[in-house]
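Lab meeting prep.
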Amino acid sequence: MTARAGFNPDESPLARLASRGGRGGGAFLDASETIAGERLRADFTRGQLMPGITQRWDSQPRQARGSAGSRDLSDSAIDARRRVDAAVVAVGPELSGVLLDVCCFLKGLEVVERERQWPARSAKLMLKAGLGVLARHYGIDAARQSGRPTIRRWGTADYRPTIGGGLEG
C-alpha cells in the first residue's frame, strides 16, 4: 500500500491487519478488502462525517445534520456522503457497524469487541466478512489487485461466442 497525501498508513487498523499473516501464510486481508476499507474511510473523511471534538469560536450555533447547515458543504463532500450511505446500505446493518468503527473511527478490534460485548477475535471475522461485501459493492476484484490474470469478455449476459467461426469474406 502506497502512502498518499493526507493518509498515514501507520494509523490505519486495516494497514496493520493487511500486513499480518493469516493461517495459510498469506495476509489476513487481501488487497481488494484493504482497498475497499480505505476507500470507505476516504469517502467518510471527504464527507466530513467525523464528529467535531473542538471548541467552536464563532457565534453560530451548530446545526443538526441534514438541516440548513449542509449548505456549507461542497458538492464533493455531499457526493462522498452519498457514497458512504450507499456502501452502508449495500453492506447491511449486521456488518456496517464494525466497518464504520474500524475503517472510519479507527477503533481497534479489541475496543470493538469490548463495546459490543462480543467474544474475543470475533470482530476480526466480522470485519473480514464486511470488507468482502464492501469490495463486491465497489466492484474491486481480488484477482486483479493481486496481479493474477483474469478472463474478461465484452458482451451482454446472453452472449455466446461461436466456435470455429473465422472471418469470412
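Slide two material, second protein:
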Amino acid sequence: MSLDDSPIDVEELPGIRGALLRYRVMAWVVGVLLVVLVVVGMPLKYLGGNDAVVIATGVPHGWLYMVLLITAYDLGRRVRWPWLRLILIAAAGTVPFLSFVAEHYATQDVRARIGTVRETSAAS
C-alpha cells in the first residue's frame, strides 16, 4: 500500500465511493452485532443462564468483523490512509459503539478528500 501523498485522480472516485459504502455498511452491521452481543447477550448469558443471543450474534460478529477489516483496508488503500489510521479503524470494531464513531470520522475524511479532488479537477 502506498502511503505517499500522491493526489487522487478523478477516475478513482467511483471506486472510492463504492469502497466507502461497503465500509460504512460493514461498520454499522458489525457495530450493531457487537452492541447486541455485549449489552443484551452477555447479561442474559451470565445473569439469566440463557446463551441464545450470544450464540446468535457472536459468531456472525466474528465473521463479519473479518469482512469489515477487508473493506476498511480496501477503502484505506484507495484514499491512501496511513497505517495507524487503518489499525485504529480495525480496532474500533472490537469495542462497543466505537465502530460508529470510527465510521463517522472515516466518512468525513473520505468525503473531504473527494471534495478536494473535485475542486482540483474543476480548477484544471
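Talking points for slide two:
The helical segments are 13-48, 52-79, 83-92, 98-123.
The two ends are 28 Å apart (CA to CA).
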